[in-house]
Amino acid sequence: MRTVLAGRRKWLAAGALGVAMVAAAPVAIAAQGTQDDQGARTASAGSGDRTQEVRQAIQGGHARNVILFIGDGMGQSEITSARNYERGAAGRLAMDEFPLTGDYTTYAVEKGNPAKPDYVTDSAASGTGWATGTKTYNGAISVDAYGNPVPTLLELAKRSGLRTGDVTTAEVQDATPAVLGAHVVDRDCKGPDETTKKCARNAKENGGAGSISEQLVQTRPDVLLGGGSKYFEQKATAGQFKGKPVLEQAKAAGYTVANTADDLAKARPGTPLLGLFAPGNLPVNWTGPKAAQGGTAPTRCTPNPALPKTQPKLVAQTRKALQLLDDRRSDKGFFLQVEGASIDKQDHAADPCGQIGETIDFDAAVAAGLAYARSNPDTLVVVTADHGHTSQIISNDAKTPGQTATLVTNEGANMTLSYGTALPGSSMEHTGTQVRIAAYGPQAANVVGLTNQTDLFGTVKRALRLR
C-alpha cells in the first residue's frame, strides 16, 4: 500500500505543477535547455540511440486501466505551432514524450452507403470510429451508416465492471464526449427540445432513448465533467421524468453535481460525479488577434480575462477523475477519456492564440495522465486527435489568399499561421489528413505505423479484455 500511495503522490504532484505552468505560460519568454514542470524537455531530445528505449516500451499483455486523450482538431500543424510557441522549435511537449508513435486515417462514410468513403470527417463520425469500431456518416453519434446503435467502449467497460470517466472542455453533449454514452442520428440532438425536432426516431415521446443528455445520464459514467448545463435545464418529453429538467434525472441516478473548481476539489469517491462548469463550452485559456487577410502585426498571446476563476483547468479535471476512478482495493480498473475540445473550435475561428492555448492546456492534462501511468505501469495511455484542421505554419513573408496572424514565440522569433479552408468570415473547415496517435503502456505497440481510426477501438478493447 505504501508504494501505491507514493505513486499517487507523484502523479498528483506532477499534475499540480502542470497547472502552474499553463497558468503562467503566455506572459514571459521561457528559458531554454531546462526541464519544465511537466517533465517535457525544452532542449533538443532524441539525438542518441533510442533502440533500447523503444524496445522496453513494447509491452504485450493486458491493461488494468486505459486513459484516452483526444485533442480535437489537433493535427501535426497544431502540435507543431504549440511546441514552437511554448517550448521552442527544438523543444518537446508532454505528448512528444511517448515512445511509440504512428498515424491513423480518419475518413467517414456516406449515410446509408458504408462502402463509399467521405474523406473529410467531423468529430461525430470520427469519435464513433474509435468508440465503436464502426465507420459512420458525419453527424452520427455511435450509430452505423444506417442509424442503428452500436455498443461503445464506455458501455462495454461498464458491462465488464470497470469504472468509467468522460471529461471534456466542451459541452458534455458535444460529439467527442457524446460518442461514449449516447446513440443518436444527429449530433445536434443534445437536449429533449432538439431531439424532438431533429432526431424523431430517438425522441422519448416516440419510444426512443432520448437526447444525448438523457442518454448520458442513463449510461451513467462514474465521472462526467465539462460544460453544457443549459441542456440539463430542458424538460423531458415522456417517461418517468416527463416535464422535469434532465438535471433531476441525473440527481435521481445518484449524481453529485459540481459547478465550480471548489465543488470539484471537494468531490469524494462513492457516488458518481457530474461536473457542469459552464452553460455551453468552457471559455478558452488564451486570447489574441484572430487571423486576417493581409495578416496581423507580430504579437504575444495573453491570458483570457474572461476565463472564470471558478472554472477548473482540464488538468485539474483529469487529476480529479483519476483520483475518483483509481481504486486499488478493487480487482477492476477504469476507462477514462479526456478531450481538449477547443483546439478545434479555435481553429474554426482562425484564432491562433486560442488554438495554441488550448493545445498547451490539453498537454498539461496529458502530462498528468502520463505521470499516473509511470506510477501505475498497468495503465495504457493513448493520445491522438479525431481529425486534422486548417492551420498551417508558413513563411513570415509569404503572400497567401488565406487569413494569417503572426505571433512572437517564447524564443523571440516570429511565427506566422495561415487559415485558408473557408472564405473570410466563415468557419474554417477540417482537413482529411491522417493524424498522430501515440501510446505508452500495455498494447501501446499497436499504434505504430499507419492504422485506421477504428483500430483504436480494438486496441483498447483488447487491452482491457472487454467483451
From TrEMBL:
Its cofactor is Zn(2+); Mg(2+). Pfam families: Alk_phosphatase. Disulfide bonds join 189-199, 301-353. It comes from the Bacteria. The keyword Signal applies. The keyword Signal applies. The active site is at residue 123. Keywords: Disulfide bond, Hydrolase, Magnesium, Metal-binding, Phosphoprotein, Signal, Zinc. Belongs to the alkaline phosphatase family. This is Alkaline phosphatase.
